[in-house]
Amino acid sequence: MIAHAFTCPEMLIDYLELDRSLLPAARAAASRFELRVPRAYVDCMEKGNPQDPLLLQVLPLGAELELRPGFSIDPVGDLAATAATGLLHKYHGRALLIVTGACAINCRYCFRRHFPYQESSAYLDRWQSALDYLRSDASIKEVILSGGDPLMMVDSRLAALFRALEAIPHLTRLRIHTRMPVIVPQRVTDDLLEALGRMRFRVTMVIHSNHARELTVAVGLALQQLRECGVTLLNQSVLLKGVNNGLKTQIELCEALFDMHVMPYYLHLLDAVQGAAHFDVSREEAQLLYQQLLQQMPGYLVPKLVYEHSGVASKTPLTL
Ligand SMILES: *Cc1c(COP(=O)(O)O)cnc(C)c1O
Ligand code: SF4
Fold it and tell me: Whose CA is closest to 33, among 11, 79, 64?
């Protein structure tokens, strides 16, 4: 199902006609967190450009191996928020179900690189305790499917999960956090669309695009189909040094999203996860960029600039 992916640093570097001197570091970093990037995404990159903003999101670099103070393996306190196997209940009214640890792509900045999915996912036949918890707490109105990427599950299993959730009367909203429409748009299958369209829930899909160049014609078509099924489309991105920390890049992303009927939702500061410190944008720089964004864009096209602080009952807005 998942289109051919590069997992070998050497093949990726050769395919993109990059300098082979990148290889030893790429191999070393990939031994900690595997390289994984689907071919279609690679084909959006510029050949011969080691600074390509799409490449930087996936290429293992030596900088990942440096330990930086303040960067840890569980930066957002997820392990402490576990309410049942695979279920995180941190915020009022919504709970997050980790349905799988797998993703179609391995993003180097992701906190997932250290998360112990084997013990923590509700996948396979381990949904029961999460479903029991959801059933027992009537304050929860919204279930968020996350991971990993929930769309790594096959449609029949997803449909079974949808049915189990629909049987819980106090749930009214379903949200799916997925990078799949952007990374593997053909994952938006007819079966998935049908399952989404017939649910009683209001369905929101939060896609994850960090750069306008990711939003190809094929991505636009997949998003259009989702919208036609009544799915509300939002985007969250992560502010990443070298990838999207320029004003022009942010404006292009927000405008390209809107062209595809996707509303910018969150722009996250990087989670302080070990191995990702080289993507860090300082708070001062983020604030300055955000001020400029507010001045140049209509309010509805500006995402909320937030960060995650363990133990706090919501994402925290970065004040200006
Ligand atoms: C981010 C997150 C949510 C969703 O927060 P919203 O502000 O509603 O988008 C819910 N649960 C957990 C555990 C989260 O990390
Ligand atoms: S969870 Fe999202 S950001 Fe992390 S590796 Fe998967 S697709 Fe990338």
Answer: 64
> In degrees rounded to 5, what are phi and psi of residue 139?
-75, -15
Residue 107 CA to ligand 2 center (angstroms) comes to: 5
Q: What is the pLDDT of residues 220-264, one digit of tens each?
A: 999 999 999 999 999 999 999 999 999 999 999 999 999 999 999
Q: Distance of CA 254 to CAs 205, 213, 261, 303, 308, Å?
A: 16, 12, 10, 8, 22
Query: Quick check: CB of 98 below 6 Å from ligand 1?
Result: no
CA of residue 215 to ligand 1 center, whole Å: 24
Residue 112 CB–ligand 1 contact under 6 Å = no
CA 311 to centroid of ligand 1, rounded, Å: 12
- CATH number for the domain running over 79-317: 3.20.20.70
Mutate to test the pocket of ligand 2, among 32, 187, 208 (most ligand atoms within 8 A of CB): 208
- For residues 35 and 29, give the distance between their C-alpha atoms in angstroms, rounded to a whole number: 9
Q: For atom 7 of ligand 2, which residue has the closest CA? A: 179
pLDDT band at 80 (very low <50, low <70, confident <90, very high): confident
Q: What is the pTM of this model?
A: 0.95
DSSP string, 226-246: HHHTT-EEEEEEE--TTTT-S
- Residue-range domain boundaries for the chain: 2-65, 79-317
pLDDT in tens, 60-79: 999 999 999 999 887 777 77
Q: Do the beta carbons of residue 101 and residue 66 sit within 8 Å?
A: no
Distance 167 CA to ligand 2 centre (A): 29
